[in-house]
Amino acid sequence: MISGYDHGQNIFVISIDRNLNCEWVFDNNSTGKRHDEFHFSKTFLSEIIDRLGEESSKAQKLQIPITTTSKFTANTNDDLIYLMFTRSNVSKQSRFKEIGFIRFGKRDLYFDDGTSLKHLVNCPSILDFYIRFKRNGFGKILFDLMLKRLAIHPKLLAYDRPSFSMLSFLRHHYSLDQPIWQHNHFVIFSNDIFSF
Predict the structure, then answer these.
(1) Is 162 inside a domain boundary?
(2) Does residue 167 belong to any structural domain of this protein?
(3) Which residues form the N-acetyltransferase domain (predicted)?
(4) What are the tens digits of pLDDT across the range 126-159?
(5) Is residue 2 part of a domain?
(6) What is the pTM (predicted TM-score) of this model?
(7) CA 86 to CA 148: how far, in whole Å?
(8) How many whole angstroms separate alpha carbon 61 and alpha carbon 57?
(9) Taking the CA of residue 184 as centre, how many other CA atoms within 13 Å lie in the half-sphere pointing to its CB?
(10) Residue range 19-35: mean pLDDT, rounded
């Protein structure tokens, strides 16, 4: 069971790899339709990634988007995007509206543990996170689904240039209230990350 989830809302989440292949993660589908009956073209997914990436950059007051389809698909790090939608049925046709996304990836990073620089290979990282509709619980649902899927605790993730709202989100929902800023603009919350 996902905490904070309102069963009256018809939402679902997919994960997308850099080849724009998608896999179902969560669906409160009450229509009885199978997941594979909903097909998303690569063009449709590209448009959504670009649109949400642009909105994310504006929300963070960045000059250029961190996440675009071209950057995501050119990346050799096997990043994943977790994408959340709402679905409504109009005249027996499903209409989809994107809510937000998380971009997850693994990076080779150097962190200061207080005594020396440590090299972490394939450090699990949150690279971008954006929810269009704030304060509706969507961000928490999406983040929890990602954590469950990856079987990881949020304190064992590195966060790339987290915004004030991202830090507030982590403090409020996961009690991560002591960010350790790094020279590479990543933030970690625990030295446990070095033994993960």
Answers:
(1) yes
(2) yes
(3) 16-193
(4) 999 999 987 789 999 999 999 999 999 999 999 9
(5) no
(6) 0.88
(7) 20
(8) 6
(9) 18
(10) 76
Per-residue pLDDT, averaged over 7-32, amounts to 82
Q: Distance between CA 52 and CA 187 in Å, rounded?
A: 23
d(CA 180, CA 191): 9
Average pLDDT over residues 169-174: 97
For 45, the enclosing helix (H) or strand (E) is helix 42-59
Domain that holds residue 155: 11-195
Tokens of 60: 């963070």
**Strand 117-131 relative to strand 158-160: parallel, antiparallel, unpaired?**
parallel
Tell which residue, 75, 79, 137, has the closest CA to residue 103.
79
Q: Look up the CATH number of the domain holding residue 42.
A: 3.40.630.30
102 near 82, Cβ under 8 Å? Answer: yes
Q: How many CB atoms lie within 10 A of CB 189?
A: 23
In-domain check, residue 130: yes
Whose structure tokens read 């050119």?
Answer: 74
Which residue type occupies 9? Q
pLDDT tens, 56-106? Answer: 999 999 999 999 999 999 978 889 999 999 877 655 556 788 999 999 999
Number of compact structural domains in the chain? 1
Reading the block at residue 25, the tokens are: 């993660």
